[in-house]
């Protein structure tokens, strides 16, 4: 088997894995898939939890959620998009 033929299955596997991550919005693709949500969440965190950081945004029942780390506190932030196009947020401390 030539060297090119041995690399092809590995390259196809890596391409399939990255396509799956893009589709699911995992890792670096999360900000691409959920751009509006990231923008709205950043504005929310600036006023409610400055200097906090957050995990990937994931789809929830009727919206999206993520984990916000603010110092030693872990907070689940849920968000939905209203009919007017704005985002509504609520929190639950973990």
Q: What does this entry look like structurally?
A:
The protein is built from three helices and five strands. It is α+β, with helices and mostly antiparallel strands and 94 residues long. Strands 1, 2, 3, 4 and 5 form a five-stranded antiparallel sheet that branches. The longest helix has 22 residues. The radius of gyration is 18 Å and the shape is elongated. The mean pLDDT is 86.
* Count of beta strands: 5
The helix-strand sequence is HHHEEEEE
Largest sheet: 5 strands, antiparallel
Query: Based on helices, strands and strand pairing, what is the structural class?
Result: alpha+beta
Q: What's the rounded overall pLDDT mean?
A: 86
What is the gyration radius calculated from CA atoms?
18 Å
Strand content: 25-35%
Number of helices: 3
Q: Can you tell me the residue ranges where pLDDT is under 50 for at least 5 consecutive residues?
A: none
State the separation between the terminal residues, measured CA to CA.
54 Å
Based on CA inertia axes, which overall geometry fits?
A: elongated
Kindly report the oligomeric state of this protein. single chain
Helicity, as a percent range = 40-55%
């Amino acid at each position: 088997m030539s060297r090119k033929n041995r690399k092809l299955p590995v390259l196809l596997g890596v391409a399939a894995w990255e396509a799956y991550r893009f589709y699911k919005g995992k890792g670096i693709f999360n900000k691409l898939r959920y751009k509006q949500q990231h923008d709205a969440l950043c504005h929310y965190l600036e006023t409610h939890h400055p200097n906090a950081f957050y995990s990937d945004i994931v789809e929830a029942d009727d919206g999206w959620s993520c984990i916000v780390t603010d110092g030693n506190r872990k907070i689940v932030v849920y968000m939905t998009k209203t009919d007017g196009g704005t985002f509504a947020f609520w929190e639950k401390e973990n």
